[in-house]
Amino acid sequence: MAQMETDYLRRRKKEIILQNGFTKQNDDKKPKQEFMLRESPLTALVEGSLHIRAIYHIFVVILLILFCDTMIYDFVERGKINIGVTTIVHGFGDIRRGAKIWLFELAVALAFYPLLRIYAATQKLFKNFPAARKISSILGILGVGLLEILVIAVPTWDLAKEHLAIGSSVAVTSEMFRLAMKIHATAVACAPRCLDDGTPLPTFKHYVYFLFAPTLVYRDEYPRTKKIRWSVVLFHFLEVAAIIFYNSFLWERFILPYWSDYGKEARVEAGTFVRGMFACVLPGVISFLCGFYCLLHAWLNAFAEMLKFGDRLFYEEWWTSSQFSWYIRAWNRVVYSWLRDHIYRPLAPLAGSSISTFVVFIVSSVAHEVILALSFGFFYPVVLMEFGVCGLILLALTASSGRRFPRLMNLCIWLCLFLGNGIFWSLYPMEYFARKNCPPSETDSFFIPKSWSCPEIVLKPNWSFQNPFSLLINYN
């Protein structure tokens, strides 16, 4: 068993050396990464290591303990059994409206294919008319841009006009960005073919396959498995459902007790505020790990299995990162690959590596901020500051020190993840309940956090600083 784990790690190290990424050394000269048959790292580790499997079982046991805690506490206190369904139903409320928005997004994405065919036919028709071909190319670029704007702008307008439940909003806003990125990737890959009669366009069937495939990088062919293992699909979907309940328990048992009354009183003691923020660190990082596993492992592996998509490397061993640049590349390879191919590489020869990296960070941060703002119903630039500012600082600090002090820098990255998630899971609930509990004001705004002015955070009346060294001085 140990030999199997060692072989896996040795093989992964060789793959990491061959990885593409927006590093500073000749990234634009590297060949595009090819897809291949491979499992997700956690799949290989859980199957090949009893130690990792034991950690997996620990998380399952924690879920069961939280499940029992919720049921027994509610039965003793209220005489009823609550298994977290209320929070989930509230979080994914108005599913019908969410489904309508998603169907609109899908319809726009599907409309791209016939427009692509029309554009190719127009280019062929104007083959001997360079001026007309150039005008057609400009109209084609504008058309793709219009579709991408449409698939993002209409759901954004709809959600801004009337708030949708948090879970449903996260789903439809994530989908609008995913489908816009799919349209862009297909357009970039197929545009040169419209000018070349020798290379055929993809079939509609293949385009639909790409829309649902767990990748944002377009290829004519992907490695495929031989059959669908429906037991694996069911297992991964059960994991998704369990993690949704897991996060519901975390919200009910660790977040609500500290922040649900925030704003009901005009003043809050600073000690209560600080204690609440640190109390959210552990549930925050657990929720972060669960979210990673739910989306990037269980959800994507379930769709990969249903579509017989062979390349399951949706992430890499980001938890061993000693450089923040590697963490960014390894954490979410699906989005990272799109940012690399369609933002970093086209921009790097013109603006340089540093500016291109900065643009990638800002674009990613803004997209996450839009999802959160539309989902919560207010703008609070926590992610923008954590990744767009602190992330860039951490990127520079760990660039060289990560190679010299890998263990120390890995510890620092985990410390930042703990603190960052604790801040995230504190500030957003604070703002959410401040808007819910504080009295209305003329200065209320979507873009100005309510929690900055209500309630007032104060020190205790008899608070005074006591020098911890004074006892030692007095003793001597």
From TrEMBL:
The active site is at residue 368. The chain crosses the membrane at residues 54-73, 101-120, 135-154, 228-249, 276-300, 347-366, 378-399, 411-428. GO terms for cellular component: endoplasmic reticulum membrane. InterPro entries: MBOAT_fam, Oat_ACAT_DAG_ARE. It is found in: Endoplasmic reticulum membrane. GO terms for biological process: cholesterol metabolic process. It is a multi-pass membrane protein. The keyword Hydrolase does not apply. Keywords: Acyltransferase, Endoplasmic reticulum, Membrane, Transferase, Transmembrane, Transmembrane helix. GO terms for molecular function: O-acyltransferase activity. Belongs to the membrane-bound acyltransferase family. Sterol o-acyltransferase subfamily. This is O-acyltransferase. It comes from Parnassius mnemosyne.
